[in-house]
Amino acid sequence: MDTDLDVRPYEIAVSDAEVADLRDRLERTRWPAELTGTWERGTPVGYARGLAERWRTSFDWRAQEARLNRMPQFVALVDGQRIHGLHVRSSRPDATPLLLCHGYPTSFAEFARLAPLLAEPDDGPAFHVVAPSMPGYGLSTPLASYGWDIARTADAFDRVVRALGYDRYAVFGGDVGAGVAEQLCLEAGERVLASLVSTDPGAIATAYTPPTDHLTDAERERHASLVAARSEDFGYLQVQTTRPLSVAYGLTDSPAMQLTWIAEKFHEWTDPLHELPEDAVDGDDLLTLVSVSWFGRAGDGAANLLYEAAHAQQAWGGSHDRPQGMTAFGEEPLMRRILDPDEALPYWRERPRGGHFPALERPDDVATDVRAFLGAPALRPAL
């Protein structure tokens, strides 16, 4: 147990002045001209104006703040960096400690619907849930220093979990959170009981895709089409992994930019069967995520973590003996062919619906997979 950290209970309490300032800024937004109503150049102006007006007028932040505060939260200081998150203990004495790691561009709020399902299930295994925001994301702000890459974040999360009283724990993560989960398997060793990561078709259409030499000619052609389809989706990444401060000014000063920056990713990365972001996830959940980023001034921190990850020497690819599983959302037969070609993972589950944010899109499915793999008796020694 890490007794050096000062971990304290926390409640969100955004001031009335901050809420009024947000509404005032939204009302005074200077909008670009609407040249096209489609998404290929970014979030369409007409859609953005409608979503911003909902955020300004009918979205009830106080109700969402109260909903989040119904779940116990903590704040800790790790190497000078504030780390905030959920800590939802189960009432079950046999519950397994579980660390949830979000990805870009969300925060602890991504797990607000999932955490209660895991902590107090109707049946099956239960979990003590710890869901921190990455340094610089959500309310783990402000970013105190440079150097917060994946490895340093994993070490901080390991220290927080131990300070909360859990010497051994399981891990679930997606996107950047999957990188943190892998790093924990490498560095924390036997403290990690097992790791489950979520993925989607976008994971095999990036520069970080695992080797594809084993694919057939037809499969290579299909993979090339997936890569081509995603080729214009990485402007956000190019900017933030090279000049994060340049975009941070807009994300910090303009709620309209923070809103459209996140909404675009929800349009691009959620289940493609849904036309709009709020068709894929609850509209209040989407605006809650954006609000947390806005009130936490997280735009620059999120950008800098991507920069740090791109410029750090990672230990990924190293070997470890921690049990690993994967749950894949979105119908794409090449996911397992590329990510688990030898079908060696002890747990693999493919789900035809869902996308990059399954804890918001398909929380019941995620809870089922977490219980099926991370709750298995063989992975739960006496804790």
TrEMBL record:
Residues 7-111 form the Epoxide hydrolase N-terminal domain. Gene3D superfamilies: alpha/beta hydrolase. SUPFAM superfamilies: alpha/beta-Hydrolases. It holds the Pfam family EHN. Coiled coil: none annotated. GO terms for molecular function: epoxide hydrolase activity. It comes from the Bacteria. The active site is at residues 175, 307, 356. One of its GO terms (biological process) is epoxide metabolic process. Keywords: Aromatic hydrocarbons catabolism, Hydrolase. InterPro entries: AB_hydrolase_fold, Epox_hydrolase-like, Epoxide_hydro_N, Epoxide_hydrolase. Belongs to the peptidase S33 family. This is Alpha/beta fold hydrolase. It comes from Cellulosimicrobium protaetiae.
